[in-house]
Each structure stands twice: as C-alpha cells, then as structure tokens.
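Handout for the seminar on molecular recognition.
Each group receives one record of this type.
Step one: identify the two inputs.
Step two: read the structure output and locate the region that could contact acetyl coenzyme *A.
Step three: write two sentences on what you found, then compare them with the reference statements printed after the record.
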Amino acid sequence: MSQEFTLRAFRGEDLNRVMAINFECLPENYSSSFYRELYGRFPETFIVAEADSDIQGYIMCRIERGFSKLRSLSPARLMHVVSIAVREQYRRRGIAKFLMLEAMKKGSAFYEASECYLEVRVGNDPAIGLYERLGFAKTKRNYGYYLDGEDAWVMSFAIPGKGKLQ
Ligand code: ACO
Ligand code: ZN
C-alpha cells in the first residue's frame, strides 16, 4: 500500500464508490439524490481522494447564507461540511486534512465563503482532533442532534484570506 494520495474533483461516476465509503465509515447515510443535488449546486467543494488507484475518501459541502458563528450578528456566507470520511486503512496520513484545506480554498475562491462549520458527534475524538488541529473551535452544543440521541458539537473556523490557508 502506497502512502501517496491525490485529490481531484468528484465526478458523477464516482457516486457509488463515495456512497459505499460513507456507509462503511458513518451512521449518517444519504440518498443518491441528496449527493447529486449537492454536486449539482456546489461541484467545486465535492472532492475525492485517490490512493492505490481508487477513491479512499471524500468531502462534500453546502454553501449557505446565514450568520457568522464566530462574530455575533454578522451575516456571512458559510461553507457547511456535510460529510467527510476516509476509509480506515488509509487514515492518519493527512488525507482528511488535505480534503478540508482544499475544500475551504475552493469554497472561498468559488463561492466566497468566509467561514466553515460542521456538526460532529461529541464522542468522535478522531474527527474533533482533526478539526482542532485545523484551528476550528467548538461554538455550540446541539443536544440530542443525532437520531440515536448523541449530542453534536458545532465547530467553526474563519477561512483565512486568499493564499493564507497553510
Ligand atoms: N485521534 C486523534 N487525532 C486524530 C485522529 C485520531 N484518531 N485522526 C486524526 N486526528 C487529527 C490529528 O491531529 C491528525 O494529525 P497527525 O496525524 O499529524 O497527528 C490530524 O487530525 C489529521 O489527520 P488525517 O490523517 O488528515 O485524518 P484522516 O485522514 O485519518 O481522517 C477522519 C480523519 C475523517 C475523522 C477519519 O477518522 C474518518 O473517516 N472517521 C470516520 C468518519 C467520520 O467520523 N467523519 C467525520 C464525521 S463529522 C462530519 O462529517 C462533518
Ligand atoms: Zn451538518
């Protein structure tokens, strides 16, 4: 197994593979039409990671108009990370970190997103570790957010200006 990986834009023919990875890695699963809608509206921030000649991880996002979660009462264009996952055998080599950084660069450049946010299970230490490492802060706790009753942290990050993302 090679340590190398590359990122590229999602394409329609990747859908089954991405859905299988989501199913394997997360209890939150979605219909194919949900993926297609996100891809149709925000293709630039739907990105896959390839290693060993196959897709091993993905990120998909939605751009939303709303209020900043970091500065009160400031309208902002937010990039919402709807789902990110990397197959177990390919973890801890930086794939998720690069997927996040690339999606934020694209979200800022193509959709003018100034802030990124997501929900994560309060017990999901690997994912919380990833987001904290990138500079995200816990901005809210959503009680009973998940279907099984677990709480979510909302975590947020101000996307640095052009060229300033590490
Ligand atoms: N424990 C602690 N910190 C971790 C862990 C871990 N298990 N995994 C990653 N991190 C942190 C570390 O700081 C790491 O840097 P380091 O390896 O230099 O110490 C940093 O995050 C970057 O890690 P990556 O290698 O980029 O992360 P990876 O590619 O392994 O993917 C992910 C992380 C996506 C959370 C993976 O574990 C996964 O797919 N988990 C199951 C699915 C999931 O939980 N997805 C997120 C749900 S929330 C949402 O989708 C919005
Ligand atoms: Zn969400």
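Reference statements: The pocket of zinc ion (ligand 2) is lined by residues 80, 82, 118-119 (CB under 6 Å). The first helix runs from residue 15 to 25.
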